[in-house]
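Supplementary Methods S3. Input chains for the assembly prediction are listed below.
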Amino acid sequence: MSAAPELLPSTPPQQDLARLRDQIAAFQTTYAYRLDDLDIDSWPSFFLPSGRYVVTTRENVKAGYPLAIVNCINRGMMEDRVRAFRTANIFEPHVYNHLLGPVEIIERAGNRYRTRSNFQIVRIMENGRMDLYATGAYRDLIVVNDAGFKFEERKVVLDSHALDILLVIPL
Amino acid sequence: MQDDSGRTRHIWPVEGAARAPFWIFSDPEIYEAEQQKIFRGSVWHFLCLEVDVPNAGDYRTATVGETPVIVTRGDDGVIHGMVNRCAHKGALVCLKKHDNVSRLTCVYHAWTYKLDGSLEAVAFRNGLRGQGGMPEDFDVDQHRLQKLRVTTFCGMVFGTFSEETPSIETYLGPAMTPFIERNLGRPLKVLGTHSQIIHNNWKLYAENLRDAYHATLLHTFYTTFKVNRLDMDGGIMLSEKGWHHISFARRAHLQEDAEYGAAKVHAAKYNSSLAGPELIRAWEEFEDGITHSIQTIFPTMCIQFTLNSLAIRFFAPRGVDVTELNWIFLGYERDTAEQTEMRLIQANLTGAAGLVSLEDGCINEFVQRGTRRSPEAASFMEMGGRGVVSVPASRATEASVRGFWQGYCEIMGFDTQPRAEAAE
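Predicted structure tokens for the full assembly:
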């Protein structure tokens, strides 16, 4: 971050903080529900053009390993994943149901907020089978400007190192 | 094998390695026999990398088939392998994936082992206040963690339960070792790991890795995005007995990228319709022009190079129809920061979310589900003929899949020599 980070909640009044947390939660909820509706085409629009989307594991983070399972370093790479989902990749149809936890605002620098929130995702297959597919933490860097909220970075840290079958719908 | 009524079953189809009978993927009796003959047999199994146990006292847990094992590095730097099962009551001794310890101590009754697996001490051996304790003739030298023979090759640690398994060099054979040395023969750096739980018998994944026929048919990412590979030249090389293989694609030429050329990275661009072409930013790493390769080592591992994305995949059965597929993405100690970054971005191509190959996570399950109630039927694998021979200039062949079955059947005791009935 460019400006020296100042810790919340020492700066804004409590009610502003609560409102901000609500707004961030609403942004994250919209992101999750669009994916649950399989509106994957809208997924890159939640990011800045230079935004990053990373899926990694708790184990990799702990070991200091830089590898990600998904590693999009700009929106173009996300658009390619959407197109691959629509036209190239083959998988058994399924949908997600995201359950989101409360937002923790960790750090603020100007109009950028570093946050963490937990999630659980149930995956529903076409034959009706439902499985707890993923749990973990979203570690986000969110930018607030006139256009609203955008992810500068969304880092998905999975609790387990193991993924069931495959990962094709963004988390 | 015979069933309870004495009727002989489990007879391999007369066509030999060009067929795999579907009972082989679902029969629990076969699965049990494999644990003994394959996983405890005269076969080297990948356990971990040497860099996973760099220091004295490091241990790493793994499995050979379903048997839990420990790899340690002793105080003298020697790598040891042993079954993760206390000599006392059989409890797991090491519970973590990795750790650094001076001794291995079972949590149950505190039996303590040296790093080579030999028993050092037993709690309350002499009893308490003169009461209890082990019998007079108790001898720590008669008890230890069951030993595994271990060996290393190009930074990989292998283990075997059998005294009869030949040296790793002999096991791999002269057709396989040079390409392993090309890919792994220098100090390795782990970039990261993950695993996939796939819902199929382990042998379906072993087949899938050797199946070059499906590569451009199931996996359409490159063609969809018009990645101009110009590397359709390729082929299949089999080891002497057909157990292991190399499938490779070679580039005709790469278009030099002036920008990266000037930066002396020797990066090259593939033409494509990607919105994020950084995905396939690559550099020419080897002079042989091979851009994509998969090299299997029988029974359950492979080394892949997808552009500059180097990875080891190894898999272990977790039941007759569940397999854990592990990914270790690698670079070299010598890599520049920019080369590491290219490897990390190219890691998008493979793995559980791999744009090029994520289909392999489900395709083998489709076979599992398609076949499990049809034990009497069999697959048909005659692409490229019926033989188990190298095909240096084409990948439209199932020769390497037949090679797997040839090796498997030899170990399991199935007769795959085409028999007289086959001619009819």
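Chain A touches chain B through 39 residues (CB under 8 Å). Chain A has one domain: 14-158.
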